[in-house]
Amino acid sequence: MSTTTNTQHTEPMTEDPSAPVIEKGIATFCTSTLNPHLTCTLCNGLFRNATTITECLHTFCRACLFKHFRASKPNCPICGIHLNLTLETTILPDRIMQDLVKKIFPEVLKEEEKQEEEFYKERGIKRKPTQEPPKVVKPKKKVSTPQPFENTDELNFQLVPIEGTDLPNPSLGLPKLSKPFLRTSGRLKILQVKKYIQKKLDISVESSSLSIFCKGGILGDELNLTFIQRTRWLNNPNDLVLHFRLKAQ
Fold first, then answer.
1. Are 188 and 228 in contact (CB under 8 A)?
2. Does 157 have pLDDT greater than 90?
């Protein structure tokens, strides 16, 4: 097979071997590129019971994080931010992150569980059996009254910047988020949402300088998403939408 060369000197083109290949809407990529995002920095292993600190959005294995809290001060192992562990929303299970680990690395997790089982077996340690959830007995009589709210802890919502004529001052506008559609615990408070916006937009302002609105009404830092959905978004079948901008001085 012959090749044709050009006498003009050109720099050789190199392709990134880790770049994803997209064919017919399906992306194929090297899983090693995801390791830094799905690995606990405390144990250097894949997340087990992934748990995220809502103040800074850093994620760890649940057991690793609690071990860190017992051995040192209540702070984030990565950024060192001080945490108030008396608040139930300071750390939350990250089900989405854990589901990613299970879907992308199922063989690795199975091997880790096998090694863990052998570890206890060799030392004669009996593990506590996994308790099955109690069976729900369905009532014989059907209840026709619909429940107003779903009994779930997670909800979907969208973060949208206020733009154009809706801004009281053009200088109060902020850019759009690269990923405005989110799914998280309904217990997440507006204060944590502000810190998420602050981190993702990489803006040098305090979270107190941001204002978040729902249907035109400003939201307090202490309100959680479930409360907002049930009071400000009542009877709306669409996902919750929150708008944000800088606070007017």
1. no
2. yes
What CA–CA distance (Å, rounded) separates 63 from 48? Answer: 8
- Asked whether 112 and 45 are in contact (CB, 8 A), the reply is yes
Query: In whole angstroms, how far apart are CA 152 and each of 116, 117, 148?
Result: 32, 32, 12
The answer to whether the CB of 98 falls within 8 A of the CB of 38 is no
Residue 207's alpha-carbon distances to 26, 153, 203, in angstroms, are 38, 25, 10
pTM value surpassing 0.90: no
Cβ partners under 8 Å of residue 32, min gap 6 = 18
pLDDT one-digit tens code per residue, 172-214: 999 999 999 999 888 899 999 999 999 899 888 887 889 999 9
Burial 57-86 (b: 16+ CB within 10 A, else e): ebbbbbebbeebeeeeeebbbeeeeebeee
The C-alpha atoms of residue 27 and residue 31 are separated, in whole angstroms, by 12
